[in-house]
Amino acid sequence: MRALFLFLLAAPLAAAQGPAADDTPVAVAAADDAERVRALLAEGAWHPALPELYADRDHALAWPTDHARLDARLDAASADGLLPHETRSAERRDLRTADDPVRRDLVLTDALLRLAEALAGLRVDPESIHEGHWYLTREVKRRRQSDPADIVRQSLDADDPVSAVLAALDALHPPHPEYHALRRELKRRLSLDYAAVQPASPRTAVGAAVWPEGATAEYAPDVIARLRLNLERWRWLPHRFGTEHVLVNVPAARLRLRDGDSTVLDMTATVGQPEPDWQTPVLSDPIRSVAFFPTWTPTVTIQRREIIPQAREDGGQGLYEKGFDVYRGGRRLDPRDVDWSRARAGQYRIVQRGGPQGALGRVKFVMPNPYYILIHDTSTPEEFDGDERALSHGCVRAEDPGALADAILTRTNGWSSTRASEMIEGRPRSSGVRLRERFPVHIVYFTAWPGESGDVDTFEDLYGRDAELAAALGIDLGEPAVHAAER
What we know:
This protein folds into four domains: 25-170, no CATH class; 177-234 and 465-486, no CATH class; 252-293 and 360-444, L,D-transpeptidase catalytic domain-like (Beta Barrel), CATH 2.40.440.10; 297-353. The longest helix is centred in the first third of the chain and has 19 residues, at 101-119. It is of the alpha+beta class. It is elongated. The chain contains 17 helices and 14 strands. The protein has helices spanning 2-16, 25-41, 50-55, 67-75, 89-95, 101-119, 126-129, 138-144, 148-156, 161-170, 177-190, 221-234, 300-314, 317-321, 401-413, 419-425, 465-473; strands spanning 244-249, 254-259, 262-272, 283-292, 324-328, 331-333, 349-352, 363-366, 375-376, 390-392, 396-398, 431-444, 448-450, 456-458. Helices cover 37% and strands 16% of the residues.
């Protein structure tokens, strides 16, 4: 009876002290894992977001199961343009057979963070490496403010974390079909047996090679590198181009008007010269109006580099003959009456009157932007007869501006299919038309582009931007392709 009394007395006291510590084998193992996570995070070079991500989880393992699916996705990152070290390929391979689940968990999470960062286009800042020649839209800038760690963190809260993180990674891909075509082509080339390929004979053209009989032209290391670089560029562009839009690819010197999956117009264009002051930048900006027989006001840079030096030589006679007026303080001056020896760039407003002889030709497509870039006609159409395409001061000259004006104004303002081109071919008269709907324009820079037949067309790197991006990403433009055994 006394023993029963003592037991009943002790029971409330034991309850008040709380439950005993969980010393089950599972709990002990989890505590040991958490301690090892802390130790490993204190050493080695991990992604900067990794320590906080695990701290938020009390240093519990993130991926206790389903490693194979994560490994498979990370191995497939080579088709996204990533190099093996970026997804810790060799280390992951070794850990598959090692008895070290904690390190494997950390390495998998680290690689997933780096993959998310890459697919979001965050590995480098294009506005820094291509300073003054690459302008991101507000949409892209908002995307670039995202934290790749959030993708992993939110996935870990899902019922099926592995499926969630894989879906989140897939959602980062640009939706454009050209991006996915380049990705498929890179995957195809990387899957080939390069060890069987013999050394190539001298190259015959950019992006093309002649190989010994029995070998294959797929082993073109510069094409492999170009595919990687151009996949990266797609990640810096808007995800929405607009159903109808104009797309100008600078290295290809091509202008296309596209409606959904259809190309309505496809024409040659001339673009900016390779000199830094004259390069055509990458930008997205809508056409807001169309001007017929427009005037031209040279920028201060053009005044300094070309207009004023020429006027000093001929006393302004050339400006007079080409229909230029000079203004100062609201007063119009004859260019032959100006003392050009004392003139400074920006001191005078210099304007060329509209007409067929004008630098902008018979029509311009106005895209108000701080970079003075627009699409226009030319007074020297013979420039399209030659092979040289990098001729302008940065603007894009369209080979058939009449067809472009017809196509745009038909869609935005309900004009007849030939009204604009008839105005261009008619009596010169300056006029302008504001578009009822803005028409998107995307000026892009791709040295590799999916061809009509399914092949990849490659183009000369006019401005050396492949080399700039390759240096930033650690890609060797002449590297041999990665063999299957090395991936």
